[in-house]
Amino acid sequence: MGNSKPALIHRTAGRGRIIVAGLLVIILSITAVFGISAYVGWNLTHPKRQALDVNPGTSGLKYQNVIFKSRVDGLTLKGWLIPAEGSQKTVIFAHGYGENRLNNGVPILPIARHLVDTGYNVLMFDFRGHGESEGNLTSVGQYEVRDLLGAIDYVAAQPDLNEQIILFGFSMGASTAIMAGSREPAVAAVIADSPFADLKAYLADNLSIWSGLPNFPFNRAFFIITPLITGLKPGSVSPLGEIPLMNGRPLLLIHGDQDVDIPIANSESLLKAYPDAKLIRFPGGTHVKNYQTNPKLYLEIVDTFLDSVKPYAASQ
To answer: Using CA atoms, how far apart are residues 94 and 100, in angstroms rounded to an integer?
Structure first.
């Protein structure tokens, strides 16, 4: 009896130390998860710039260096204008995440050459934080749409280019093209190769592809911490939500049936939301590798679509 009180105190103190230690482990674990998520979020929104290793002249194309401003925030963007003799129709390319105007993973330049040969002026430019353009934050469409709208403004202001404006995007650029086309009536049509339908929903299922981390517990931490340190708001980037504003204008969706980075279900969702679109399920294509998989078929699909497009003003 005489020793029970010290024993009780000892046991209570032991439990207290265990509880404190457990709480410290939990706090340290949460801190680590948020710290890692912040690091990954910062790196994903600040990808390393890719150097421009060639230019259209390398392929025997005449081109002009161009500079214009993004809409709204006025960032300086750089690109190339490749003219097609006697044409007033222009295709504006929108490259993918972490790429530059060449988008060598596609690659864009051979497609641009084909378009020039078939009578389209081509504008290729670097999104903010990519290539030679101003800025250092990549928002996966949130602010890049301003850049593409700025490119549209640049083309629309030139009578020798603006008879017909087509947007042609890949991956991030494809989703951005859908949003820009939905917002800007001057756009006659959009071609979107491998787009995501909704950024927040896409990242909720596929963030690990880009982060290399398991979905749990890092996804939730990413969605909490990344907006705080970067201003990125994934919920604001939704081609699916904006696509009805295309108002009947032509939209060609191209998606590889073997794409695991952005599954073809994204384009299927976009088609469901906008039945006026046409979806080409590209056999054997992986992410933005549809042109590489079968260049001849790819260009035939693009040509057929472009031949059907009329200036938007004439279709009203």
So the answer is: 9
Q: Which range has the worst mean pLDDT, 7-21, 106-120, 290-304?
A: 7-21
Mean pLDDT of 285-299: 97
Give the span between the Cα atoms of 3 and 24, in whole angstroms. 32
Look at residue 316 in the predicted model and tell me its pLDDT. Answer: 44
What is the chain written as a DSSP string? -TTHHHHHHHHHHHHHHHHHHHHHHHHHHHHHHHHHHHHHHHHHTSPPPPP----GGGGT---EEEEEE-TTT--EEEEEEE--TT--EEEEEE--TT--TT-TTS-SHHHHHHHHHTT-EEEEEPPTTSTTSS-S---TTTTHHHHHHHHHHHHHT-TTT-SEEEEEEETHHHHHHHHHHHH-TTEEEEEEES--S-HHHHHHHHHHHHH-S-HHHHHHHHHHHHHHHH---GGG--HHHHGGGGTT--EEEEEETT-SSS-THHHHHHHHH-TTSEEEEETT--TT-HHHH-HHHHHHHHHHHHHT---GGGG-
pTM score above 0.85: yes
How far, CA to CA in Å, does 29 sit from each of 18, 26, 267, 283, 305? 16, 5, 38, 45, 53
pLDDT, residue 121, reads: 98
Residue 32 has pLDDT above 90, yes or no: no
Question: What's the rounded Cα separation, in Å, for the pair 64 and 58?
Answer: 13
Residue 19, pLDDT score? 76
Cα–Cα nearest to 255, from 242, 244, 269, 243: 269
pLDDT band at 27, cuts 50/70/90? confident
Mean pLDDT along residues 249-263? 97
Taking alpha carbons only, the member of 226, 209, 42, 55 closest to residue 131 is 55
C-alpha–C-alpha distance, residues 131 and 306, integer Å: 28
Mean pLDDT for the stretch of residues 127-145: 97
